[in-house]
Amino acid sequence: MRESFFNRRAFLRGGAALGAAALWTPGVFAEQLLRTPSLTEGPFYPDKLPLDTDNDLLVINDSITPAVGEITHLTGKVLGPTGSPIKDAVVEIWQCDAKQVYLHTSDSGPKAKQQDKNFQGFGRFTTGSTGEYRFRTIKPVAYPGRPAPHIHVKVKKGDRELLTTQFMVRGHAGNARDGVFNGTRDLIDRELILVDFKPIKESKVGELSANFVIVLGRTPDDRDTQPTRTRGR
Amino acid sequence: MRLTSAFLLTLGLFLTLSQTDAHPPPGKKGGGGPPGSGGKAASVDDMVQRLMAFDANKDGKLTKEELGDERLNALFDRADAQKHGYVTKDELAALLTKEAAAVSTGGGPGGGGPSGGGPPGGRPRPQPGQVLSSGLQDELQLTAVQKKELAQIQKTVDDALGKILTAEQKSQLEGMQRGPGNGGPPPR
Questions:
Q1: CB–CB of B175 and A40 under 8 A?
Q2: How far is CA A207 from CA A6, A72, A99, A198, in A?
Q3: Residue A114 φ then ψ, to 5°
Q4: SS3 sequence, A157-226?
Q5: Is B148 within 8 Å of chain A by CB?
Q6: Domain region containing A169
Q7: Which of A82, A99, B47, B99 is most buried as measured by Cβ atoms within 10 A of its Cβ?
Q8: What per-residue confidence (pLDDT) applies to B105?
Q9: What are the pLDDT digits (tens) for B53-74?
Q10: Chain-chain contact of B167 with A25 (C-beta, under 8 angstroms)
Q11: Which Gene3D superfamilies match (chain B) (predicted)?
Q12: Which CB contacts under 8 angstroms, 24+ apart, belong to B87-91?
């Protein structure tokens, strides 16, 4: 039996165990929050979605064998530019497993032997009224040619893709050698895609927590109500 | 025969022109370092301004509370070297100048090769694999016929590159091609 600080069932229910809410104070001032930069999707967004696409990437369906890797509780919020939470946003994450294999036929196909078959590789979460999301996954590892460990993120609402980006591990030595990270030339933008992976004190098995706040450029509702602007301004 | 020499010429041209942009391949030390100042890196002044805009009471002292964005706490702490709980415009400028310098000299190990500088500002940096960037084409004042022929050469290069690169390497290239703007829609 796995001994985990967060019981899987409670996790899937989205119990209030993880106090993500306390980490964010919505914009007290009228200033706009800095927008999360978009970054390349890369070639490995799953070409065939797995049968299990829930927010626990460590366990596929009812398997009893968890994925290999450092267990990470990833939380965050999807916010509009003024800090208002975005409801019903679908947050998707994907990353390679601890053996450096993506769930994608052109990667997990040729590297089938190397692949950690217990890692889900991709997950989804739909935000509620607080805009919060949560995943249980592994701390990302470097990938050949990508010295910066990273997790890919896509945010959708309805049939709209609102943002595609990636985030990296703050303080990781590989960041400085990474093409995607270095392609982000703005120093402030870099801060927005770096995430602390902190040990959870109560955890006896070395679990980590990570928080990635996503600020969209415009609220989706703005865009929905103004699909085309014919009037000049 | 003519085609071969044309291809070699193209390849030579491509290598010359893309040198400024070369990233060190994985596992190889040295090389170009990250793209140089040719990219539209935000100026220090601009970044300072964006941050000082959060100085709600306009007293010239930006606090963490005013910033109200914990994503920037690490940057704030680095700038607040004196640990007095606020940062001034000058402190931010000092930090960002220092960090921007580290970025443009290549940053990490393997960077800062002889060609690390990138093209001078103003001209858009060429993408890896691009024979002549649109900026260069304009500068050279290519004729329509030349542009058409160039497009054919480009296609040959793209096809050839596409055949020899693995998905991983294409992924890397994509990362390099990504400009500094972060604005546009993600490539699909």
A1: yes
A2: 9, 6, 19, 8
A3: -80, -25
A4: ECCEEEEEEEEEECCCHHHHHCHHHHHCCCHHHHHHCEECEEECCCCCCCCEEEECCEECCCCHHHHHHC
A5: no
A6: 8-15+31-215
A7: B47
A8: 63
A9: 999 999 999 999 999 999 999 9
A10: no
A11: EF-hand
A12: B87/B61, B87/B62, B88/B60, B88/B61, B88/B62, B89/B48, B89/B52, B89/B60
Judge if ipTM > 0.90.
Answer: no
Out of A144, A185, A192, name the one closest to residue B168 (CB): A144
C-alpha to C-alpha distance for A200 and A210, rounded to whole angstroms: 10
Comparing alpha-carbon positions, the chain B residue that sits nearest to A102 is B168
Q: Which of A23, A59, A57 is nearest to A196 (CA)?
A: A23
Which carries the bigger pLDDT value, residue A196 or residue B26?
A196
Residue A23 within a domain: no
Parallel, antiparallel, or unpaired: how do β-strands A197-199 and A208-211 relate?
A: antiparallel
CA distance B92 to A129: 36
- Identify the CATH number of the domain in which residue A197 sits: 2.60.130.10
The tokens describing A214, both together, are 């996503």
Asked if A131 contacts A79 with a C-beta cutoff of 8 angstroms, the reply is yes
State how far the Cα of A180 lies from the Cα of B23, in Å rounded to an integer.
11
Q: Does residue A2 lie in a domain region?
A: no
Nearest to A89 by CA among A41, A35, A160: A160
Number of structural domains chain A divides into: 1
| Mean pLDDT (whole number) for B114-118 | 36
Q: Single out the residue of B79, B145, B16 nearest to residue A188, CA to CA.
A: B79
If one compares A97 and B116, the residue with the highest pLDDT of the two is A97
Note whether A29 contacts B100, CB cutoff 8 Å.
no
Encoding tokens for residue A1? Answer: 């039996």
* Grouped pLDDT means (10 residues each) for chain A, 233 residues: 49 46 45 91 95 96 95 97 95 98 96 97 98 98 97 96 97 96 94 98 96 86 46 44
Contact A119, A95 (CB under 8 A): no
Does residue A130 belong to any structural domain of this protein?
Answer: yes
Query: Rounded to whole angstroms, how far apart are CA atoms A177 and A155?
Result: 27
Q: Crossing angle for the helix pair B144-164 and B2-18, nearest 10 degrees? A: 80
DSSP 8-state secondary structure symbol assigned to residue B42 = P
Distances (CA, A) of B43 to A141, B37, B93: 32, 11, 10
pLDDT at position B36 over 80 = no
A98 phi, psi to nearest 5 deg: -65, -15
